[in-house]
Amino acid sequence: MEAKIEQFSRNKWLSLLINGAIGSAALAGVITMQSSGQLGGMPAASVQGQKPVSAMSATDFKQASQQEALRLKMLKTLPSFGFDNLMADWTFLKFLQYFGDDEARDVTGYNLSEDYFDIITRRDPKWADIYLFLSTAVSFYQGKPETAVKLIERGTNALSRQNHPQAWIVWRTKGIDELLLLGDIPDSIHSHEMAADWVENTADGPKLAPIFRATADFLRRDPDSVPVRFNAWSTVYYQTTDKLVRQRAKQALVKLGAQVKKDKDGNESFILPPRK
C-alpha cells in the first residue's frame, strides 16, 4: 500500500506531465501507479473483534465496501460547521487508505473513487493538486472520464490564476482526460490554452506556457488522436480486474476500431489495424 500511494506524489506527476509527449507522459503516470469512525474508512489492520486483513474473505471485503459507501453517502450531507477544508483533508486520507488496499480492490474494484472526490471537490474545490489524483483514480482506474471531467470543472470554476499559482494544473489535467479518453479535441485545445494562460505569469511560465500552446497547435493541425486513446484505454483494460471498468474499456477500444483477439485460454487482447 505504501509504495502504491507514494507513486501518487505531486512531483512525480508534474514531471510526467511536463516532459515528453502527451500520450507517453499520461500513460507513464498510469503504469507507474501499478508498480473507522464517523467519517468512514476501510478496515486496514487487525483490531480486537475484527479479522486481520489477510484473513478477510471476498464477502468481508464486499461488506466493508458497502458500509463505506453508506458512510460516504452520509458524509455528503453532513454539516461541516465551517471546517470544509478539514473534512476534505480527512476524506482524502480515507481515499488513500481505500485506493492503496490492493487486496480489497482486487475484489470490489475502485467504484467508490468518484464518491471520495465528489466530497473533496465539494468541500474544497480550490485544492488544485487534488485533481491529478482525481483524474487517475476516476478516469483510468474507474474508467469514468466523463465523471472526472465534471468534477475537475469544479476546480476550473472555483480557482483563478490571480490567486492560485498552481491552478494551471487543473486545466492541464482536464485537457489530458479530454484528449486521451474522451477524444474531445476542441475542449482539449481550449483546456491547454487556458493552462498556458494561467501558468504564463508564474515561475513555471517560461518553460510550460510554450509547451501547452504547442500542444494546442498540434491538436489543431493533427486532431486524429485515435492511437493515443487506444493506448490509454488498453492500459485501463489490462490493469483492472473490475468487470464494469473492463467492459467500459473494451467498448471504448472497439469503438476506436480495435479488433478483439482471444487466446486458447480465453484471454482477450486488442489490435488496432493500420489507418488507411
Descriptive labels:
single chain; 276 residues; mainly alpha; two-stranded antiparallel ribbon; 14 helices; 65% helix
The tally of domains stands at 1
Number of strands: 2
How many H/I helices?
A: 14
> What profile does the largest beta sheet have?
2 strands, antiparallel
| Weakly predicted, low-confidence segments | 1-50
Give a brief rundown of this model.
The protein has 276 residues and is an all-alpha fold. Helices cover 65% and strands 3% of the residues.
Structure description:
- Strand 1 and strand 2 form a beta hairpin.
- The longest helix has 20 residues, at 58-77.
- The chain has helices at 2-6, 10-18, 22-32, 58-77, 84-100, 102-108, 113-123, 130-141, 145-158, 168-182, 185-199, 205-221, 226-239, 243-255; strands at 259-262, 268-271.
- The protein is flat.
- Mean pLDDT is 82; it is low at 1-50.
- The chain has a two-stranded antiparallel sheet.
- It is mostly helical and 276 residues long.
- The chain has 14 helices and two strands.
- It has one domain (2-239).
- Helix 5 runs antiparallel to helix 7 (113-123) and helix 11 (185-199) packs antiparallel against helix 12 (205-221).
